Design the sequence.
């Protein structure tokens, strides 16, 4: 037996190997086409349960508990994958994220149950728990809430319909770029690497504004510039405040 994070790490390792390396593409396509009638769905779910027995036995878990663990993982994986294969939006990233989150939650619940001396109280009273909550809060804050703030700010500066029609970018591509940009800025800020933040801003400026400057569309350029600056300011501000709370030193 071991601590919670040690057990969870082993379980996640098995999950990654089975879900991404031991699952051929033809299995994925077969699950989409035939759902519960697909033998591949059963093989894949059973594979997860069987391979998970290896770390379970290595951790000293009894045979009866190991069999129950394998059965639980097999059944839960089957149900989750069946849902994903059956839904019409199964190919969307949101479904993939929900699918993986559910798998991880199942493994975390099992690891929590079998780990030595782990209770809700020990987690809440851990000296690093407030720091973890602060970091999670920061990442959540710079994603959707920040996008909504930027949207409200940009409403004061509408661009013409012709300007919008002239854009040939990806659908919601700007929002995704903003997410990635703020996550990178926040991450580098939390580790105190402000030089890396400057590199991210420089790289974005080259690719984003270089293309806009080729046109005479000044309103679109200003629109993008305002949104980018608001995004950067919020990410740096949140990262700096959380870094001060964590006692991170600037590098």
Sequence:
């Amino acid at each position: 037996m071991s601590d919670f994070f040690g057990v969870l790490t082993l379980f996640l390792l098995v999950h990654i190997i089975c879900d991404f390396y031991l699952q051929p593409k033809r299995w994925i396509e077969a699950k989409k086409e035939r759902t519960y009638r697909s033998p591949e769905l059963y093989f894949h779910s059973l594979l997860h349960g069987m391979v998970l027995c290896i770390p379970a036995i290595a951790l000293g878990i009894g045979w009866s508990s190991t069999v129950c663990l394998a059965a639980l993982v097999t059944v839960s994986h089957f149900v989750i994958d069946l849902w994903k294969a059956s839904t019409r939006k199964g190919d969307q990233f949101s479904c993939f994220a929900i699918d993986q989150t559910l798998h991880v939650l199942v493994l975390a619940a099992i690891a929590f149950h079998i780990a030595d001396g782990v209770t809700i109280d020990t987690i809440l009273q851990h000296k690093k728990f407030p720091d973890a909550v602060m970091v999670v809060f920061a990442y959540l804050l710079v994603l959707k809430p920040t996008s909504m703030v930027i949207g409200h700010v940009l409403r004061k500066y509408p661009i013409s319909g012709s300007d919008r029609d002239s854009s040939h970018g990806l659908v919601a591509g700007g929002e995704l770029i903003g997410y990635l940009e703020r996550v990178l800025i926040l991450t580098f800020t939390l580790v105190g690497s402000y030089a890396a933040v400057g590199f991210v801003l420089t790289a974005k400026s080259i690719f984003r504004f270089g293309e806009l400057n080729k046109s005479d569309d000044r309103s679109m350029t200003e629109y993008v510039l305002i949104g980018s600056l608001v995004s950067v300011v919020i990410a740096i501000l949140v990262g700096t405040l959380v870094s001060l709370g964590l006692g991170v030193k600037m590098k």
